[in-house]
């Protein structure tokens, strides 16, 4: 169809995310790109370094009157390798990590058994790619490449909003995830202190009452002896 370039959109049905509109990409995942092959009216969605999680239904939508849609089902096949080990990623310390409010979230992603370092490593918070230039600030990533590649995600001054699932997604391996829980240490310690203080006070009063009950008859007896004398 001629003259529909700016009206062609690619949509991922797994999360109904608009990936591209015309030649513009509307996702922070840089693996996705729409390409046009003039003089034809063919628009192709390219996915670099496809992974198992990319499988699913994609919709090519043309914003004409009426709207036209074409659906493509993508299957990602992992071919067998000669070697027994395949590239894998894991985040150390998982599956659950607990950090105190105001401290630094320090996540370490280890990529092993890869013939070469991954072309890229994306970090996700829930389903959103983490932006290191966001207004939040205090977010950084350090990557060390070698026989094994290690990527460190640092999130300073943690708040409850930073809780949730974090994922490390290298280009050549399935993503790895952990769940981070940001604890309000001050409130918890204050509750623990008050609870302990209440328990100790209650125990002290109980013990004191027992002593009074035990020794009161002897005190009365001594007073009577003094009176008799």
UniProtKB/TrEMBL annotation:
Q: Which UniProt keywords apply?
A: Membrane, Transmembrane, Transmembrane helix
Tell me the ranges covered by the Ig-like domain, including all copies: 87-179
Instruction: Indicate the transmembrane segments per the record.
Output: 200-222
Could you confirm whether the keyword Membrane appears in this record? yes
Q: Which InterPro entries match?
A: Ig-like_dom, Ig-like_dom_sf, Ig-like_fold, Ig_sub, Ig_sub2, Zig-8
Q: Does the keyword NAD apply?
A: no
An example Gene Ontology CC term for this record? neuron projection membrane
One GO biological process this protein is involved in is:
synapse organization
Q: Which PROSITE patterns match?
A: IG_LIKE
- Stated name of the protein: Ig-like domain-containing protein
Q: Which organism is it from?
A: Leptidea sinapis
């Amino acid at each position: 169809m001629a003259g529909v370039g700016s009206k062609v959109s690619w949509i991922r049905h797994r999360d109904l995310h608009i990936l591209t509109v015309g030649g513009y990409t509307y996702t922070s995942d840089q693996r996705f790109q729409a390409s046009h092959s003039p003089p034809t009216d063919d628009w192709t969605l390219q996915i670099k370094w496809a992974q198992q999680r990319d499988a699913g239904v994609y919709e090519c939508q043309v914003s004409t009157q009426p709207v036209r849609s074409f659906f493509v089902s993508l299957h990602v096949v992992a071919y067998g390798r000669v070697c027994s080990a395949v590239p894998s990623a894991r985040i150390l310390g998982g599956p659950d990590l607990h950090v105190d409010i105001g401290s630094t979230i320090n996540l370490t992603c280890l990529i092993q058994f890869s013939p070469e370092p991954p072309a890229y490593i994306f970090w996700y918070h829930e389903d959103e790619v983490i932006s290191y230039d966001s207004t939040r600030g205090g977010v950084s990533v350090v990557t060390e490449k070698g026989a094994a590649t290690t990527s460190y995600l640092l999130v300073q001054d943690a708040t409850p909003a930073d809780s949730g699932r974090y994922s490390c997604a290298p280009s050549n391996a399935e993503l790895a995830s952990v769940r981070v829980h940001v604890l309000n240490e001050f409130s918890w310690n204050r509750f623990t202190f008050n609870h302990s203080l209440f328990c100790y006070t209650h125990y002290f009063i109980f013990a004191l009452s027992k002593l009074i009950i035990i020794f009161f008859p002897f005190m009365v007896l001594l007073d009577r002896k003094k009176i008799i004398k």
